[in-house]
Amino acid sequence: MSGTAEVQVRPGVEADLKALTALYNHYVRETPITFDTEPFTPEERRPWLLSHPEDGPHRLRVATDADSQEILGYATSSPYRPKPAYGTSVETTVYVAPGAGGRGIGSLLYASLFDALAVEDLHRAYAGIAQPNEASARLHARFGFRHVGTYREVGRKFGRYWDVAWYEKPL
């Protein structure tokens, strides 16, 4: 398939938990994109899913194939930090299923997420991108994020240290 016409974006629901966990576990096992190092069970991921309701500042948007309903990716806004003064800031992220890249799914997900967040009392969105990841940096730039700094060798995975570039976007 090509293009994005066959893709739908909607809020994530509990029925998505198994597929979302499998998608995330791919990145846990195969990439430095997440600094989790051990795969999760769906039950272990349930609190994460439930922390992203359909409304409020912490959302989960899911992209599915319109015909098969296969999950092609997801985007979230999550608390930036737990202290109360950070309440108007969120950390955003996008994960696209292996083999689904290059179809604009990340852009569809972020467009939907930021549209939903537009009605919330939020001031800034932040994104940390493990380096190198040029595709993610381009996606974030398209949505108005700007690079604000890089933590050098902040995470160790697969026997090496990884940098994380931080980006911010006004909301």
How are the SSEs ordered, and which strands pair?
Layout: E1 7-11, H1 17-30, H2 42-50, E2 60-65, E3 71-79, E4 89-96, H3 105-117, E5 124-130, H4 134-142, E6 146-157, E7 160-170
Parallel strand pairs: 4-5
Antiparallel strand pairs: 1-2, 2-3, 3-4, 5-7, 6-7
Helix pairs in contact: 1-2
Could you walk me through the main structural features you see in this protein, from its secondary elements to its overall organization?
The structure is a single chain. The radius of gyration is 15 Å and the shape is globular. By secondary structure, it is α+β, with helices and mostly antiparallel strands. The model has no long low-confidence stretch (mean pLDDT 95). Strands 1-2-3-4-5-7-6 form a 7-stranded mixed beta sheet, with helices on both faces. A hairpin with a 2-residue loop joins strand 6 (146-157) and strand 7. The protein contains 4 helices and 7 strands.
Overall average residue pLDDT: 95
Structural class: alpha+beta
Order of helices and strands: EHHEEEHEHEE
Largest sheet data: 7 strands, mixed
Give the strand order of the largest sheet, numbering strands 1, 2, ... along the chain: 1-2-3-4-5-7-6
Quickly describe the structure:
The protein is of the alpha+beta class. The protein contains four helices and seven strands.
Question: Notable features of this structure?
Answer:
171 residues, alpha+beta, 7 strands, globular
